[in-house]
Amino acid sequence: MAISKTAAFRGISDCKIAAVTADTAVSLTYGTLYDVPIKDLSITENRENYELKHDDQVQALESVLQSADVSGTIARVPMDVLNIFTGGGVTASGTTPNQAQTYDLDYNDLPGYFKLEIVSAKAHSDAGDVADIHIQFKKCKIQSLDYSIEDGFASIKFAAKAIRTINDGQIKSIVFNETSSQIS
User: Fold this and answer.
1) Cβ(86)–Cβ(106) under 8 Å?
2) Eight-state DSSP code of residue 107
3) How far apart are CA 135 and CA 11, in angstroms?
4) Is residue 86 part of a domain?
5) How does residue 157 score in pLDDT terms, banded at 50, 70 and 90?
6) Range of the domain at 171
7) pLDDT at 122
8) What are the angstrom distances between the C-alpha of 76 and each of 36, 102, 128, 132, 151?
9) Domain count, the chain
10) In percent, how much of the chain has pLDDT > 90?
């Protein structure tokens, strides 16, 4: 028998990002996965809505998913993630005890596409047959970054837009797993 199609989940157990290296009719490939120390995530679907009207009445409706707005807060400063978001560069320099990691962003650095995936290992279904839930956005591009530096820990708020892939036309994917799986 198939596992449940309805489940609740609590929290984000893991979040990873990878650059889109190819998106063609034949393949969709990604670069190295990097951990995103995510605190929260919000998703808003954007739809194009159409109405068929005649005789002064709406006769039919059509709603087509165009994209999804994905925003969240990052709890640390992950240079490799910033590099994927913005197209900047991360450089290591120096020798012990004077090593440094530097993230630079130039005015002509362009953001590329990336995959963003979260997993929640705190899934609950009535049948108890869902171990984890994955939500994946296969092709996103950063829209904005907002650095918040205050009395406590600094954080980075980001906003991205997910669009359909050339490969399979998907914008997002939600997967319920009977057995927990890692982001890959």
Assistant:
1) no
2) T
3) 12
4) yes
5) very high
6) 7-51+60-177
7) 93
8) 9, 15, 34, 25, 15
9) 1
10) 92
How confident is the prediction for the chain on average, in pLDDT?
95
Handedness of CA 127, 133, 138, 143 (dihedral sign): positive
Tokens of 166: 């050339």
Specify the pTM: 0.90
Rounded CA-CA distance 137/16 in Å is 11
Exposure of 76 by Cβ count < 10 A (0-12 exposed, 13-18 middle, 19+ buried)?
middle
Query: pLDDT tens for residues 16-31?
Result: 999 999 999 999 999 9
Maximum distance among all Cα pairs of the chain, rounded to whole angstroms: 79
CB 138 within 8 Å of CB 170: yes
80-91 pLDDT per residue, tens: 999 999 998 999
